[in-house]
Each structure stands twice: as C-alpha cells, then as structure tokens.
Amino acid sequence: MRGWSSMVCALVVCGAIAGCGTGGRGEAATAAADAFTSALREGDGAAACAALAPETAEDLAASEGESCEEAIGSLDLPDAAVGEIAVWSDRAQMRTADDVLFLAEFGDGWKVVAAGCRPQGERPYECEVGS
Amino acid sequence: MRRALRDNGLSIGFGLLFLAALVGQAFAGQAAYNDRQLADAGASISLAQYVTSSDFAVDVAENWQSEYLQFFLYVFATVWLVQRGSPESKLVEETGTESDKKQKVGRHATANSPEWARAGGWRTTVFSRSLGAVMGLLFGLSWLAQSIAGRAAYNAERLAQLQDPLTWLGYAGSADFWNRTLQNWQSEFLAMGSIVVISIYLRQRGSPESKPVGEPHDTTETSG
User: Composition bias, kind Basic and acidic residues: at what positions (chain B) (predicted)?
Assistant: First the structure.
C-alpha cells in the first residue's frame, strides 16, 4: 500500500510540475519573442524571418509571392514589447500591447509560429502571419 | 524464496503486469504524441521527455483515478447493497456494518486481531474504515493529478490551435476533463456490475471470485 501511495504522490508532484513550471523555458520563449519584435521595430526582415518557425516563414513567402524578408516588412505587424507570457509544454503565448504571438519549441529553440493575432471570441485567434 | 513468491503471487504477478503495461504505454504514447507533433508542426520528443510530460501523466492518472474510485465505491457500496446469488455480495440479511462480535472488534477481538481492532475508541473507528478511506484518498489524489496534468496537456493543445489557455477551474469544468473522467468511470461501473451479475450464473473452478462449480445459483457469499 505504501508503494502505491508513493506512486500516486509522485504523480501528483509530476503533474504539478508539468502544470505549473515555466522557469527557464519561459525565459527562452520570451527571448525568442523579443528577438522577433525587436527585428520588426528595426525593420530587419532577415532577423524577423529567422525568428519565425520554418513552416510559418515558408507559408508567408508562398502566400505573398515574394521572399519572407520582403513580405514581412510589407505587413506592418505590431512590434510592441512582449508583456504577459503563458508557457505550456512546448507551446507559448505572448501578449504585447497590440497583439498576441504564438510560439513553439523546436530542436534549435523557440520560434514564432503565429504573429499579429487578434481574438475571435471562442474561436482560434486570427493571425496576420501563421494562421 | 520460492515460498515467498508463492505466498505473494497475486501481488507480485499484478505488480509485474502493471510495470510491463506502463512501459508499453510509454512507448506507444510517445509514438502517438510524435505523430500529433508532425501534424501540428511541433518537434518530436524522446522517451525520457515523454514520460515526464503532462501528456503521459494525464493518460496514466485518468485511469488510476477510475480504478481507485471503483474499489472505493465497491468497498463502501457492498456494506449496504447486496446481490442475492452473487459470490461478490454478503448475505442479504447482513446489510450494514454488522455487530462488533461478527467484526471481532473491542472485547470481541481475538489474540491475533490487529492492535487497532482491539484498542477500541477512535483507533478502532478509524481502522474499521481504513480500507475504504485509503481507496478514497488514492482516488482523490489521482483525480487531482489528472486535473493538473490534464490542464497542462490541454493548454499545450489549445496554444497549438491558437486558442487561449484555461485556468485550473476552467479546465475542471471543461468538456475535455469530463470526457476523460466519465469515459473511464462508465467502464469501471460496467465491469463491476457485470462481475456481480454474471458470477450468479457462471463459475470459474478454483477462483475465489466464483462460487464452487456445483453451488446453486441462489447461494450468496460463497467462494471456491
């Protein structure tokens, strides 16, 4: 019986860690979002596209019919500094003063999968990039 | 050694089956998780990352809570509810918590009775309900773990679908939480009800879960 109790307690602790902890992952995700918004403010399309997830960058280039670097500059995406963050597993949401960003963690770090997102009630956010 | 294995065959056997199934679940769960990641443009994860993830924790906890709920309810329900003819039930005329004499507590305890059964007072009261109470506690802890890990896993899914994450209370009232919970509960209740009724009419020679093969269908509380 003691063994079973220990296992359940371990599971509760494990669940709590999985449910609450952001820590270093949150900082890394915030840094990736900061790199993206900073690049937008500085008009550095190459750096902004480097902060995007590969699939998001490819989709943007395909939809606009030009390179990602050129397309992202013409979209006039919000570039306010990152504020509130929420990190769950390998996904994160960052709120700026003007919009919401969504990020995912890849082998080479956090990348922006959607930007310029605005709420649509219960439905998923509508995003200028990556929806 | 051989005697210890024989004397504890049930607990050792089911302990090993549990571990084997848990390892199998870990491998299958990791493969399923990585398949979903491909569809959501996410990164694949290792087995070690998967078994410490909220996805694995919620899948384990949702099954644990329903099993402990099953035994918690069964332990308490069989005090008051009976089933004529079932070896899973006590005699129809013995519903309730029964006499101290039959339960061997207080002055009716024997020399070999557990200390808290002899002690009387609050210790005997607690010990008299300890089996159900611990099952209830394990159920509560497992269900809490399901809600915490489930919220983490569900919020990751919601973020992948560009939706806002939920608070713990929001998740505890969500369709995902109750779908996971009730799909496990219904199967446990069905299984318990089935064994109670089917064991009235069918036999398994040598099993304490069955009546002796030649025992009449209307005999209650007999195992063989």
Answer: 91-103
